[in-house]
Amino acid sequence: MLFRVAEGVSRPALVRGTLIEGSELARSVPEGLPRAIYLAFLVSEVHPFADGNGRISRLVMNAELSRTGEARIIIPTLFHEEYVISARLR
Predict the structure, then answer these.
(1) Is residue 1 included in any domain, yes or no?
(2) What Cα–Cα distance (Å) separates residue 59 from each residue in 38, 74, 90?
(3) Res 88 pLDDT > 80
(4) Whole-number Å distance between alpha carbons of 10 and 14
(5) Which is nearest to 14 in space by CA: 23, 5, 22, 2?
(6) How far apart are CA 34 and CA 85, in angstroms?
(7) Which of the four pLDDT bands, split at 50, 70 and 90, describes residue 65?
(8) Which is nearest to 62 in space by CA: 79, 78, 43, 88?
(9) For 58-84, what is the mean pLDDT?
(10) Measured between alpha carbons, how far is residue 75 from residues 6, 10, 12, 13, 62 in Å?
(11) Which domain holds residue 65?
């Protein structure tokens, strides 16, 4: 275990709190691609859902790109496995 949860604090509360704080912090990241990458990283690292975290992180990333008039990033199904593997490398 990487960290210990404080007594009386539930993991869902920590996830929600981290997403709220991370979203507030996103305002300090430059708009467009830098913020899109930050938001995708936030969702994928916090991992708030049992399934679909990658899809949600790409949705959030593309929403930011669309909001600023930049091209969206689409991961073709053909390259999905490579995308997942590369996202797990750290």
Answers:
(1) no
(2) 13, 10, 22
(3) no
(4) 7
(5) 5
(6) 22
(7) very high
(8) 43
(9) 93
(10) 38, 34, 29, 31, 11
(11) 11-88
Instruction: Please indicate, yes or no, if residue 5 is contained in any of the structural domains.
Output: no
34: pLDDT strictly greater than 90? yes
Domain count, the chain: 1
Is residue 32 in a domain? Answer: yes
8 Å CB contact between 32 and 68? yes
Say if CB 21 and CB 38 are below 8 A apart: no
Expressed in percent and rounded to 5, the helix, strand and coil fractions of the chain are: 65, 0, 35
Q: Which residue did the predictor score with more confidence, 11 or 76?
A: 76
CB under 8 A, 24+ apart: contacts of 83-88: 84/54, 87/44, 87/54
Q: H or E element: which one contains 6?
A: none
Tokens linked to 71: 């091209």
Q: How confident is the model at residue 54 (pLDDT cuts 50, 70, 90)?
A: confident
